[in-house]
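Quick start: load a record and inspect it. Here is Anoctamin:
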Amino acid sequence: MQLHCAAPLSDILTITSLILLEFHPEVEADTVDWLLGKILTPEPLGGLDLLARVISQTRAGGAIMVVGATPERLLLEADEDLLFRHKPCCPIGGQAREVGDLGGTRPTEGVYGMLSSAECVTLVQRILDRLRVGEGEEIQVLQRIPLLPGEPVMASLSRLRVLTSIYPLHEAPLLQSLQGRWWAGWCGLKPFSQREHWQLLEDIRAYFGEAVALYFGFEGSLVNALLLKSTLSMFLSFYPLRLGNNLVFFTISSVVWSELFLQGWREKSKALQRDWGTVVTHPSHSHSSTAAAVPRVAQGTAPPQSQIDAHPFGKMSLRRLQHSFAFLTCTLCLSSITILMYLHLDGLVGDFLLREELSFLFHNILVYLPKIAFTVAMAGMDYVAFQLSQGLSPDPEPPGHQSPRQQPLLPEVILSCLFNHFSIHLYRALVLNDLIMVRFHLSVQLATHLGIKLLSAMLLRRLRRMRMPPGRAHQEHQSHVLRQITEQSNRPLCDTQTWSYLELLISYCHVMFFSGIYPQCALWCLLTIIAKSCMDLWHLCSGARRPFPRTSPGGNVLWQRVFCGFEALAVLLNSLLLWSSLEFRLLFLKSFLKQIKLTHLYLASLEGHS
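Running the structure step on this input writes:
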């Protein structure tokens, strides 16, 4: 398919923000040329007056269109409230601090100091969403399906899969500095203070948007809370308390710790949103270029109801109910079969070790290997369940338009993953009353999870090289921007944050459910989340395509409710685990006998006085 460049390369390189549109390989050249013309046409004539160019093709053979705007156009598109609102990292006094800059300032030029990178991308996306089919225009797209006059172009092309993917282009210099500061802080090379951490969150928000920044803020708060709890747990686990008192203390302290952590994050997230403001990604658009670009939600108020309740859990359609039943049936059956196979294998290994005398090395291999293999298998089952839930989504979102709910089958995914991780422990604790084996299996499971994260973190560069296809000969003569576009078009799409929050929830449940009987849970989860934090930022910066910046206070509130719900569930489970413990039963029996003895002595003393 031969396509002509509609904008010179020099104009493309001066664009402030770039958005890439990938077309299906079977789309005709006339459709791409029509869309290119609509984007380049001035607004009074029904176009968008943006810069655009078709520069390359994907590996599947589809065309790639680059769309962007000049700084002057973005300044005209933005409203005053967005341009001149207070920004913690960008004072208005003529000096602007760039994302990732290590403290230096430079004179403002054009859009810098007034619009962040995330706001520029949001404005370009807003302009694209405003495009409509003109009156009297007839365009035939994939499979000879026409677009009707007045129909939104970008939404229709995404729905018809003419556009297979829409995503903004990464800005490499900003990412390198941002990723270096994040790694240096978590790895201890240059630990950042509380103020530096808040500044880093502001830089992440200025590039990736508020939803990503809130996630990293939540992750940092959980790390700080686990650091305090693991220090206290490690100290008290070696302190000789009375028999059974350790279990009671650790159980009660876990509930107090969780309440302080969740309440602290609620206050911190509100403070961050008050400082940042709320930028709505998909407001109602008008056809005027001087309309309010990104309206703000009033501080301390809830976001629009249509964004929070995009996929309410209470309203289940018949189709969603069918998908939910099919999903739970498949995942729970597969997990149950895997658990039964593991229990059978573990029993065979135990019988073999009792009959045979083996060396120390082979004995430990047979003891640890089934549990390590089972942990890896359950991690694979989590990934399968997540991918299956995405395939069964009743109402998939078009590319570049993710809703704050992020995952239609979220309750089912959470139930499946928690069943994979905790059913075997609860069976041994509540049915077999074998807390010693639960502690041993927990230590192996958490150490395996940490090993997987550390192994992935050490192989980041190699994984990236393996994922990228080898360069072609003609790419050596391309400019840096064109090579970057070609390289990023071969990256996978950036998934929603459901998987990231789900991993944090699993670590949180490990601490809440089992830190009473196994206090070292907090330390293992702390190390795992630190490694996960580095992995998360690498995935956003180097492992996947850049996601569209968006605001999701509804998603943040949703996950806060999920964590609070499992906090309440942990109280019941810890009570059952306490009763299953032999130490607690002995303590309870001893206290009960002591109470009977004191009552008997008191009654005897009353008889003596009488």
